[in-house]
Design brief:
The protein has 278 residues and is an alpha/beta fold. The protein is built from 11 helices and 8 strands. Strands 1-2-4-3-5-6-7-8 form an 8-stranded mixed sheet, sandwiched between helices.
Length: 278
């Protein structure tokens, strides 16, 4: 968990205001919320929140609950307390999937859903993601990834947050097309939260219940995805298009998993976002 010192430093670094498991940017009303990935990688959406806050108030919830249901309830509590409902949710990676589930469960709270570099929604598209990532690394990095995966699977290892953070750094490198930075601004990597939440989410996807939930979404949905993202674009577009009544897919050229760190795609990414937030 994030201690008081880390939270204070994080608030200073992000130029946001820290409120327990929430950072705020700009001024009220807060009708936009950015939802970070991971699970268990709080802080990664800070650059997007900062950029958008020059024109509007932005909330950055930091998800801490160790279950999907817990994160849904946590997010609802934050939004009901601090947001000008209904909000536009901008979710990244796992945060896109969490926002998708949230919009299905609490449709009156969500005016628009924006999925950025989303995780895929059908199991068949997930199988090659890790292989694609590893194939993009040099031989030394490949060996390190395999070593880290072995460490993370060893029940005798007590500290798995440190190797998870290193694995995340290597995969950020693999995920980028031409990034201007590899600093994702994650406050901490939470291994046990990652495992418990993602285990539940993966089962929702495998069972088909994730897509069934999507049929309950009432708001417009926009997916923004990089053409170099190892999460294949077809794993978002093909499953979602038939079940969502108002769905648009935007493919960014020369763009990896995190569009805001990409030299070629960053400007177009924010242009698309601003157009969707008008």
């Amino acid at each position: 968990m994030i201690d008081d010192g880390q939270a204070e430093q994080a608030a200073r670094n992000s130029e946001g205001v820290q409120l327990n498991n929430l950072r705020t940017y700009g001024n009220a009303p807060f009708a936009v919320a950015v939802i970070h990935g991971g699970p268990g990688a709080p802080g990664s959406m800070a650059p997007v929140a900062r950029e958008l806050s020059s024109r509007r108030g932005v909330l950055e919830p930091l998800q801490m609950a160790p279950s999907v249901e817990g994160q849904l309830q946590e997010l609802q509590a934050v939004l009901k307390t601090h947001a000008d409902l209904p909000v536009t949710l901008i979710g990244s990676s796992w945060g896109a999937m969490l926002s998708f589930i949230f919009a299905a469960r609490f449709p009156v709270h969500v005016a628009k859903l924006i999925l950025v570099g989303s995780a895929v929604y059908d199991e068949q598209y997930a199988r090659a993601i890790q292989e694609t990532r590893i194939s993009r690394l040099d031989e030394e990095a490949k060996r390190e990834v395999l070593s880290l995966l072995t460490i993370l699977s060893d029940p005798a290892v007590s500290d798995k947050c440190t190797p998870l953070a290193r694995l995340g750094a290597l995969f950020t490198e693999a995920d980028g097309y031409n990034p201007v930075t590899l600093d994702t601004e994650v406050l901490e990597h939470q291994y046990h939260l990652n495992q418990s939440v993602w285990g539940e989410a993966a089962e929702l996807r495998r069972s088909g219940k994730l897509l069934e939930l999507g049929k309950q979404i009432q708001c417009p949905v926009v997916a923004i995805h990089g053409d170099y993202d190892p999460h294949p674009a077809e794993g978002i577009r093909k499953p979602l298009a038939p079940i969502l009544g108002n769905f648009r897919f935007v493919l960014l050229k020369n763009c990896g998993h995190l569009p805001w760190i990409e030299k070629e795609a960053r400007g177009e990414f924010y242009r698309v976002l601003e157009a969707e937030l008008r």
